[in-house]
Every structure is written in C-alpha cells, then in structure tokens.
Design goal:
This protein is mainly α. The chain has two domains: 124 residues, Four Helix Bundle (Hemerythrin (Met), subunit A), CATH 1.20.120; 103 residues, Orthogonal Bundle (Helix Hairpins), CATH 1.10.287. Helix content is 65%, strand content 0%.
C-alpha cells in the first residue's frame, strides 16, 4: 500500500536508476554479470594478498603483485564511489554493514603507503563474498542466516547471565585450586604451578571449557580429583548455551516468512526481502525497481511444458507403433 510521501521522493535520471539496478540488484542479466565479475575480482585480490605473503614468491613477483593489488584497489574504489552515487541515501549505505565492509576492503591499500603492515588487512575483502547468496539466487540462505542472527540476539540476555555464572564459577574453582595446590602456604612445593589466583583462574577456564592446554596441571590427589569434576562439568558448559540458542532458533523458524524472496534492494533504505510482486518497499514505502526475475521464471516454465509435451508425443507414437 502506498504512503502519502512516496511521490515527493527524489527521482534520479534513467541512467542513474539503471546503474543502481545493475550494481545493487542481481535479477537482470547485466546485474548478475556485474556481480559475478565483482566476485572474480574479489577472489583474485584475496589470492594476490595470500601469495604475496609467501617469501620466495614475494621476492620474485613483488612488482607484479603490487601492480595487481593497486589495480584491484582502484576498481573497488571506483565501485564504492559509484554505489554512493546511485543510492538515494548515501549516508545509509556508508553506515550499513556492506557499506562498512566495502570501505574496509579498500582502506588497507592506502594505509599500507604509510604503514606497510596494514596491507595484511586486505583479506577483509573475503567478507564481500557474502554477496554470492544474492547473485546466484540463494536468497533463501540469507533468510536462514537472518533467522540465526535473530535467534542469537534473542538469546543474548540468557547467554550473558550464563557467562556471568561461569565467571563466578571459574573464580571460585581457581581460588580453591590455588589453596589446594599449596600456592598460599608459607612453604610451597617446588613443582607447584598454581603460583597465584589469576593463574589458577586461567587454568580453571581452560579446563572448564574442555580446551586443556596441559601447560598447568595439579599434582596433589585432591587437586586432581577437583580437576576431574571440573572437566566433567565442562560438557554441561557446552550443552547449556547450545540449548538456549536452539530453543530461540526453533521459535524463530516457526515464524519464518521467506516466500518469494528476491534480490531487490530498496534504493532509499537499502533493505532487502521483498516479494516478487512488490511495487513499493515494505519498510519505507518507496517505489521499487521492477522485478525482472518473473520473465526468467516464465521462460523456464514454458521450456518445462514444451519438454513434457514432446515426451508425451514420443510416447504416444511409440505406443501406436507397438
């Protein structure tokens, strides 16, 4: 349903609107081609960064790697500026998740001019590969990911309470182990590794989380008995947060609404998750670009029907010959 302020929204030129559709959406051949090319560039850039850290390759192909990295960076910079140019609300894009990721993907190259170590952060470009779900029509997976994120958000308070309880528990166990192992006595054992309460708390955290580095171990019988109890409790530590998140995930999954998910992105609020027949954004009420995926689906359906008819014809002719 339209809202009164829709007609007052600024309309860009057809070229600018078309450019937005190609860069931000993947329901047109041009948009999908651009996004696939972008993914190839991202993968190429990540590969260059990784190979450049190999000593013998760096010494042999340093100039080539540097040239390629600057070529990738200039391409991503132009893409970032174009994205800002084509959206109706540049500030929303710049402060959005993908906007921040896009900016972080180009900054390391420029920072490396003054701080060479900053070049390693270019591996952050791998996060941009999340767009693969939209490009190849895997929007359903993005919806599933949103359900998991919402389930984690709903579980946050319960998990924080649980973590607070764990902190109290490891503090108590660490303090007890410090006393049991003789760390607080006037004549501590020479092989005693529990020399302070912070170190004992560190041991309790490592043991309770079932990590078990083995760098610190109790030597007294009672200390070993206490360590065994903490190890067994570690399984409960794993089970409790899993149960909390699973419960919230189940609730969210039952409320899931993921029908007719498209790759359309509102050029005003940059929100996704619109139906195929939607003409206006369900979040801000702005007019959406026409969805072009229907024609593609119609062609697929027509091809399927034609194949079915051909099979029926062949079968009928075969039966007549028999």
């Amino acid at each position: 349903m339209s809202t009164p302020h829709q007609n007052t929204r600024e309309r860009f030129s057809p070229f600018r609107e078309r450019l937005y559709e190609i860069i931000f959406e993947a329901d047109t051949p041009e948009g999908k081609t651009f996004d696939i090319a972008l993914l190839i560039m991202i993968l190429g850039s990540i590969l260059v960064v990784m190979l450049d850290t190999v000593p013998h390759l760096h010494s042999k192909y340093r100039i080539l790697f540097t040239a390629l990295e600057w070529a990738f960076t200039l391409f991503f910079t132009a893409e970032y500026i174009t994205r800002i140019y084509t959206v109706h609300s540049p500030r929303r894009y710049i402060t959005s998740f993908y906007g921040i990721v896009d900016l972080l993907s180009i900054l390391p190259t420029y920072i490396a001019i003054f701080l060479p170590a900053g070049q390693s952060f270019m591996i952050l470009r791998a996060i941009r590969l999340l767009r693969v779900f939209k490009i190849f029509g895997l929007g359903q997976f993005m919806v599933e990911g949103q359900i998991i994120m919402k389930a984690l958000k709903d579980s946050l308070n319960k998990i924080l309470v649980f973590l607070f309880f764990i902190l109290i528990l490891v503090t108590i166990f660490g303090s007890i182990m410090y006393v049991v192992e003789g760390g607080g006595s006037s004549n501590p054992q020479p092989d005693n590794q529990f020399t302070s309460i912070p170190i004992s708390v560190y041991w309790a955290i490592v043991t309770l989380t079932t990590v078990g580095y083995g760098d610190i171990a109790p030597t007294t019988p009672f200390g070993q008995f206490l360590a065994a109890i903490i190890m067994i409790m570690g399984y409960a530590v794993i089970a409790v947060p899993t149960g909390i998140v699973s419960s919230e995930f189940s609730k969210r999954y039952k409320k899931k609404v993921a029908k007719n998910y498209t790759s359309q992105v509102c050029s005003h609020c940059l929100k996704e998750g619109h139906d195929k027949d939607a003409e206006y954004c369900k979040f801000c009420g702005a007019e959406l670009h026409p969805y072009h995926g229907e024609n593609k689906d119609a062609v697929k359906d027509a091809v399927k029907e034609a194949v079915k008819e051909t099979i029926k014809t062949i079968k009928s002719k075969t039966d007549r010959n028999k």
